[in-house]
Specification:
Blueprint lengths: L1 H72 L6 H9 L3 E11 L2 E13 L1
Length: 118
């Protein structure tokens, strides 16, 4: 009985040691994954800010193109002062596109444009 008890205690210590080692390995993996998640979130946030900046530039360029197109469609001769005066006026335009997607396909899309500031 005593030998059996000693053998079982030894076996228990071995199992506990293996369990502790596995827990340490899993904790290491968990820390690594948490670090990757934090990096991925930071990268996503950086990309969202970059996208927002690019979108703002796009909206400004579209407004400028629309101004030049309007000036060309008016049919009048453009002078340097006209170009300078039109470039000094700036508009802030908000464009919103809403898409309803079902099973990966766009089923509805609405566009809304608002002039926020002249």
């Amino acid at each position: 009985m005593r030998n059996m008890k000693i053998s079982l205690e030894k076996s228990l210590r071995e199992v506990e040691a293996r369990y502790a080692l596995q827990m340490e390995q899993l904790n290491g993996i968990l820390l690594h994954l948490e670090s990757e998640l934090a990096q991925t979130r930071a990268e996503g946030q950086r990309q969202a800010q970059e996208y927002e900046a690019l979108l703002n530039i796009k909206v400004k360029l579209e407004a400028e193109i629309a101004t030049y197109r309007r000036l060309l469609e008016d049919g009048r001769d453009l002078s340097l002062s006209d170009a300078l005066n039109s470039s000094n006026s700036m508009q802030t335009i908000q464009k919103t596109t809403t898409r309803w997607i079902v099973d990966g396909k766009v089923v509805s899309e609405t566009n809304d444009t608002k002039v926020l500031r002249h």
